[in-house]
Amino acid sequence: MKDSDESAGTAARSKRADARRNKETLLEAAASVFVTSGVEAPVRDIAAKAGVGTGTIYRHFPTRADLIVAVYRHQVEACAEAGPALLASSETPHAALGRWIDLFVDFLVTKHGLAAVLQSDNAGFDTLHTYFIDRLVPVCAQLLEAAADAGEIRSDMEALVLMRGVGNLCIGADSDPRYDARRLVELLITGLRLPQ
Amino acid sequence: MKDSDESAGTAARSKRADARRNKETLLEAAASVFVTSGVEAPVRDIAAKAGVGTGTIYRHFPTRADLIVAVYRHQVEACAEAGPALLASSETPHAALGRWIDLFVDFLVTKHGLAAVLQSDNAGFDTLHTYFIDRLVPVCAQLLEAAADAGEIRSDMEALVLMRGVGNLCIGADSDPRYDARRLVELLITGLRLPQ
DNA sequence: GACGATACGGAACCGTGTTCCGTTTAGCAA
DNA sequence: TTGCTAAACGGAACACGGTTCCGTATCGTC
């Protein structure tokens, strides 16, 4: 809640009304297009759906990645906030970790193509990388540390590596029904366990 | 060894000498460019390096993916053939599986960007998918079955899924030194183990 | 109602893979 | 050796993607 949330803010005087309206329209159009055509949908398609020119998109979102971030921000936040909650409510830290990773996988798998775009080293998606990493890695780290402290898992796995691994496993999970990302992730988490 | 291997063949009469020479030049140029710029290097770069026009590339290799397949065919073949060999020479099937996966990871990780391109659902890379899947999945399946029969691992993991998982884990392994694909793959294989 | 700042639209640009076609050349025959 | 033709070549042109630019339209204020 740092910007673009005008509903309760006292500031936000500078933007023109039509601009704010357009931004909202764009977010809805993008969300809708992402559902049907995947995250890799052409910018022009989104502009068309929203009934605006491409230039308008770029004024509101400097790059495609910013648009993606904006569309999914809420869900990423929810995922991030679920971490501590699960830790508090689960029997063991390892169970919390498992459930949290499950949430993360849910998120990635349901957004057609998001996982693939998340790892693309295509410069220009830096915003996307940075946002996901900055927001989620600390949460994952907390869960990992708790589980390690409880002696449930090995302590030499960095959150960043695990997150990227899970993210990678989710690539292509939608486009091929034979591929079972969730099971592989499960295996990965199992492999993390210390032979008690 | 079905075509393009003229050295010992009695056939191969139809192609003009310069064409054969160019194909060879192209393969070398592509291999060289792939090493320095990655598998995603522009076709034009490869053409330039080889000193030919882009049209020439497309006459020899109908699509970029065909060129990639041609460049790496030898190594994929070697990997495929290593499967049965490892199974015969290792103490246990699970050890053979581990070593074979290691070979596969070696291959993917050292080819800058190959893993990423391998999974891209970008139609047009079908050739690449098909070749890898057709050639390597049966080998992996054989290793998995042997290990399952020996009671070392769970028997409900399909080779295709495992291979794609391992492939996915290798994505981006080169571009970020903090990411440790090999360790994640190890974890995955560990997770496969039956609690003895 | 007028006017200046703000926002808009979409043509234009750049970098991809791929196709197309006029030009060149290898290889054979006379 | 010379001439001919099918094969191969080169690279301009096309399609398609993200992004930029700028003339035009609109908002909001005076």
TrEMBL record, chains A, B:
<dbReference type="InterPro" id="IPR049445">
    <property type="entry name" value="TetR_SbtR-like_C"/>
</dbReference>
<dbReference type="Pfam" id="PF21597">
    <property type="entry name" value="TetR_C_43"/>
</dbReference>
<keyword id="KW-0804">Transcription</keyword>
<dbReference type="InterPro" id="IPR009057">
    <property type="entry name" value="Homeodomain-like_sf"/>
</dbReference>
<protein>
    <submittedName>
        <fullName>TetR family transcriptional regulator</fullName>
    </submittedName>
</protein>
<dbReference type="InterPro" id="IPR050109">
    <property type="entry name" value="HTH-type_TetR-like_transc_reg"/>
</dbReference>
<dbReference type="Pfam" id="PF00440">
    <property type="entry name" value="TetR_N"/>
</dbReference>
<keyword id="KW-0238">DNA-binding</keyword>
<dbReference type="InterPro" id="IPR036271">
    <property type="entry name" value="Tet_transcr_reg_TetR-rel_C_sf"/>
</dbReference>
<feature type="domain" description="HTH tetR-type">
    <location>
        <begin position="20"/>
        <end position="79"/>
    </location>
</feature>
<dbReference type="InterPro" id="IPR001647">
    <property type="entry name" value="HTH_TetR"/>
</dbReference>
<feature type="DNA-binding region" description="H-T-H motif">
    <location>
        <begin position="42"/>
        <end position="61"/>
    </location>
</feature>
<keyword id="KW-0805">Transcription regulation</keyword>
